[in-house]
């Protein structure tokens, strides 16, 4: 359903030159698991790095497709400095997760999208505290001083996120992009983030079968843009 | 979620008996212990913020109103997404200072019934509080609004009164209301405040409520109240702070030395 948006991500990467300025890594199946701490709180005094705080550029989204050829499984892209070089700083943050899966239909699409979307915030990685506004596709995360000292990095985050998403039986491929280079680079994806957030809201509305007349629906523009959404809605109304 | 061993202290009692000053001095007392502290101002007058030398800033009620405004505009979100978004906003509204964090609840809602948003906010506040070692809630006289707007369960119900018959009646009523099922708690105890001398405590009949400590009028507090100065600037060796610490040991909030 989000296939056009995934194409747009590739286009933005190529047109802006971001692709050339970044580096890639591959999921490491041998990397040890990062410890978990479900009851942690990272307060300002314990924070080494803020990512995407409310006064910084922030984009965090999950884009889902049933076309596995659109997602390079296990690939991670990074634009910006290593976290280890950023202690004491507040950075803009872009996190884009591309997921290919199977078995999506009008009954399960929203539930699965939400499951993946919220899973980003339930990793409970020790020393990493994400908070989000899903409706705006924003994320504000903190990395603790201890975690940074212990070697926490965006590669660690990517590895753990990859593992977690692959625990879902309908997920076939996961690719991630992390951008901390500057606000302009993160904001390249802001319009896309706003539109995909609206598409997710349309999915939610559809899941609740609230509106049956496209002319009256607030999300008509999203359905016009996202090809599969209208078909799914029409099917759900039969 | 893992089990939390957070000690949550709700401070209740008649208006004017010094609940807010005691709440602020509790923050100061607990800052000497090892652990994280969340101070919650559940009184619409937001006096707790002033006593801690803070500007309350954005309140939980401001967040609630934003969410309701978005809903009225037709923006759709699932319950889970709304909770995640509220969690972000509440954390953002929390003021983080050296030694403690602070959250203001703000004025009670006035328009319409949005019970679901209130329930979500309570879930978020309870989830946030469970990650701290100590939570101090400065409320209005009773506990009903703490239960409705902050959390359903506390570990320690701290009842504050002066030596007046009216003040004592209020705390006895608060305990009865709590026991009727309004608030779940582990321990209850009373602090007598603003006494002319410690002897006055012996003239007060608290019934079954455990007396935790007796605090006399304190010029250091009075001076700061007049000057609108934070009670965190009280001297560490102040007699009230020392008595408060002993009371918290008796109450099982902190370990004795």
Please explain how this structure is put together.
The complex is a heterodimer of chains A (238) and B (257). With 238 residues, chain A is of the alpha/beta class. Chain A has a single domain, classed as Bifunctional carbon monoxide dehydrogenase/acetyl-coa synthase(codh/acs), Chain M, domain 3 (2-Layer Sandwich). Helices cover 36% and strands 23% of the residues of chain A. Chain A has helices at 3-16, 18-21, 109-119, 145-149, 154-165, 183-187, 190-207, 220-225, 227-237, and strands at 23-26, 47-51, 58-65, 75-79, 90-91, 93-101, 128-133, 138-144, 171-179. In chain A, the strands form 2 sheets. In chain A, strands 1-4-9-6-3 form a 5-stranded mixed β-sheet, with helices on both faces. In chain A, β7 and β8 form a beta hairpin. In chain A, α3 (109-119) packs across α7 (190-207). The longest helix of chain A has 18 residues, at 190-207. Chain A is globular. Chain A starts with a helix and ends with a helix. In chain A, 48% of the residues are buried. The mean pLDDT of chain A is 88. Chain B has 257 residues and is of the alpha/beta class. Chain B has one domain (7-250): 3-Layer(aba) Sandwich (Rossmann fold). Chain B is built from 9 helices and 8 strands. Chain B has an 8-stranded mixed β-sheet, sandwiched between helices. In chain B, α7 links the parallel β6 (156-161) and β7. Chain B is globular and about 60 Å long. The model of chain B has no long low-confidence stretch (mean pLDDT 88). The chains are: A alpha/beta (238), B alpha/beta (257). Chains A and B meet through α3, β7 and α7 of A and α4 of B.
């Amino acid at each position: 359903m989000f296939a056009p948006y995934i194409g747009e991500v590739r286009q933005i990467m190529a047109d802006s030159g971001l692709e050339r300025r970044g580096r890639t890594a591959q999921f490491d199946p041998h990397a040890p698991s990062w410890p978990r701490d479900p009851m942690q709180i990272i307060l300002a005094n314990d924070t080494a790095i803020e990512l995407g705080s409310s006064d910084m550029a922030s984009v965090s989204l999950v884009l889902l497709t049933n076309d596995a050829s659109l997602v390079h499984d296990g690939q991670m892209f990074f634009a910006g400095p290593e976290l280890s070089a950023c202690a004491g700083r507040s950075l803009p943050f872009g996190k884009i997760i591309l997921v290919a899966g199977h078995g999506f239909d009008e009954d399960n699409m929203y539930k699965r999208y939400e499951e993946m979307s919220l899973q980003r915030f339930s990793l409970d990685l020790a020393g990493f505290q994400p908070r989000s506004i899903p409706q705006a596709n924003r994320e504000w995360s903190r990395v603790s001083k201890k975690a940074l000292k212990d070697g926490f990095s965006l590669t660690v985050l990517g590895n753990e996120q990859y593992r977690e998403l692959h625990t879902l039986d309908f997920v076939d491929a996961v690719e991630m992009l992390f951008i901390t280079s500057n606000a302009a680079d993160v904001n390249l994806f802001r319009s896309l983030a706003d539109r995909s957030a609206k598409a997710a809201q349309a999915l939610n509305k559809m899941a609740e079968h609230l509106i049956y007349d496209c002319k009256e629906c607030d999300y008509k523009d999203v359905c016009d843009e996202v090809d599969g959404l209208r078909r799914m809605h029409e099917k759900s109304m039969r | 979620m893992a089990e939390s061993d957070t000690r949550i202290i709700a401070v209740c009692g008649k208006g004017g008996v010094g609940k807010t000053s005691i709440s602020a001095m509790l923050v100061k007392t607990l800052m000497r212990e090892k652990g994280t502290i969340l101070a919650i101002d559940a009184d619409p007058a937001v006096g707790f913020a002033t006593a801690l030398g803070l500007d309350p800033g954005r309140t939980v009620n401001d967040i609630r109103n934003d969410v309701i405004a978005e809903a009225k505009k037709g923006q759709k979100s699932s319950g889970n997404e709304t909770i995640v978004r509220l969690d972000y906003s509440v954390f953002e509204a929390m003021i983080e200072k050296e030694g403690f964090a602070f959250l203001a609840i703000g004025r009670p809602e006035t328009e319409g019934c949005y019970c679901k948003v209130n329930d979500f906010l309570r879930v978020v506040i309870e989830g946030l509080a469970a990650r701290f070692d100590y939570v101090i809630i400065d409320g209005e006289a009773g506990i009903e609004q703490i239960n409705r707007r902050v959390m359903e369960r506390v570990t320690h119900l701290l009842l504050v009164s002066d030596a007046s018959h009216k003040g004592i009646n209020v705390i006895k009523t608060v305990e009865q209301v709590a026991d009727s099922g309004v608030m779940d708690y582990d321990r209850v105890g009373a602090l007598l405040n603003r006494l002319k001398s410690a002897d006055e405590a012996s003239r007060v009949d608290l019934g079954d409520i455990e007396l935790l400590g007796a605090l006399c009028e304190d010029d250091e507090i009075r001076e700061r109240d007049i000057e609108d100065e934070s009670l965190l600037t009280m001297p560490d060796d102040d007699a009230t702070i020392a008595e408060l610490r002993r009371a918290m040991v008796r109450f099982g909030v902190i370990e004795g030395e």
